[in-house]
Design brief:
By secondary structure, this protein is an alpha+beta fold. It has 3 helices and 7 strands; from the N terminus they run βββββββααα. 21% of the residues lie in helices and 25% in strands. The chain is globular.
């Protein structure tokens, strides 16, 4: 991302834009504006999805967001994986345990292990009318659903 001010411009990775502070949640200075977002070209084999848990239809703010991407290699083995949670902390949360999928098939057991680890990262704020304990409880099943959607149905031999 490129941020510009009277002092010049600076490029930062997206992960560095957010601070773990509910009041000052961006590292962007007040005199800066965001002028560019740079995206790398996706390598072949990536599949991605976004699941949004909310009270009402699609126009409502999420009480949990799950962004998941998996790059498959030969034989259906995971070559890379990224998982980010939104709306369950003061900033987006990168779930580093998604890397445990690398070199493995996306089995039910592997999916459930990553989903359980993801739930440990959720620390919802008490900022909606839904209980934050319930929102934390919903992380594992929502991550499971997102990763199984990316995987697709298991084919029997």
């Amino acid at each position: 991302m490129t941020l510009v001010s009277a002092d010049g411009e600076r490029d930062i990775p997206l992960e560095e834009l957010y601070a773990d502070d509910g009041m000052a949640y961006l590292t962007k200075r007040p005199d800066e504006i965001l002028t560019s977002v740079w995206l790398a070209l996706a390598e072949p084999g990536w599949r991605s999805t976004y699941w949004k848990l909310r009270r009402r239809g699609s126009f409502d703010f999420p009480v949990l967001g799950v962004a998941a991407s998996v790059r498959f290699g030969e034989g259906g083995v995971v070559g890379d994986a990224r998982l980010v949670l939104g709306a369950v902390a003061s900033r987006p949360v990168l779930v580093t345990e998604a890397s445990s999928l690398i070199g493995r098939e996306l089995t039910d057991e592997a999916v459930e292990a990553v989903a359980a680890a993801a739930a440990n990262h959720a620390t919802p704020l008490d900022n909606t009318d839904l209980a934050y304990a319930w929102r934390k409880k919903m992380v594992a099943p929502t991550v499971t659903g997102a990763l199984k959607e990316i995987r697709g149905p298991i084919r029997s031999a």
